[in-house]
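Let us work through a complete example step by step.
Step 1: write down the sequence.
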Amino acid sequence: MASGGYLVDGEIDSQPECWLRASELAREVAGVLPARGERVAVAGCGTSWFMAMAYAALREAAGEGVTDAFPASEMPLGRSYDRVLVITRSGTTTEVLELLRKLRGTVPTVGITAVPGAPIAEVCDELVALEFADEQSVVQTRFATTALALLRASLGEDLTGAVEDARAVLATELGALPAGEQISFLGRGWTVGLAHEAALKVREAAGLWSEAYPAMEYRHGPISIAEPGRTTWMFGEAPAGLAAEVAATGAAYLDSGRRDPMAHLVLAQRVAVAAAVNRGLDPDRPRNLTRSIVLDEV
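Step 2: predict the structure and record it as tokens.
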């Protein structure tokens, strides 16, 4: 289990149970979430955008239909979609609300949020509430993965293995797991979004240098920063030869093995929090960040 008595510790530990509840909820909201064959856009900001990326890749790979993911501020309004899905923990994020206002009356919109009474309820057509996954910490952990668990379950995935893997990760001692001077997170397909999220957690919570790339792109330049004292961390199935190439640089290499990659993200969350504590930082309240980004104007 996580340690240290911070709010984020308890939020990280609660993820397996949240995922189970999300799996049950997916059946209840089946008529609200994207249907097979629909052309769908998914938008969010920060962590929510990375969860959108993961879902989009999973949905297309499952043959459910064309699915694009965008940061809310960059979604092209001229494209035609059958449904637009947005993810926002607080329901107050300026860019998300502005996007929904622009789309009103042109396409069905669905919001996933932890706060059903937030302003998002006034600007989207349907709302899926994950109040049980809301958080007090500024750093998102359980809301993000629970939203993704809901969406994975909506695609027909059985998350029993993911839940078991997450429980195993939470019971693992961190020991000498990497929290050095730099970590490069890699992914393939849907796990590219997870790699970006893991890198964001390390930056947010611990202020450490972290990067994220599609795994096959890592050789095209980013591997040049690999060296002793740094880590390359792979989510999902690694490309052939990657581990050996990283080893040749002297950098450490870590992958998820047979674990579900979403459960492996829990490990990265724990490493980020531990690194923050080791640096004398408060992982619940990262520097320069607030729980929700609300702007005067976009």
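Step 3: interpret the result. The chain has two domains: 7-154, 172-278.
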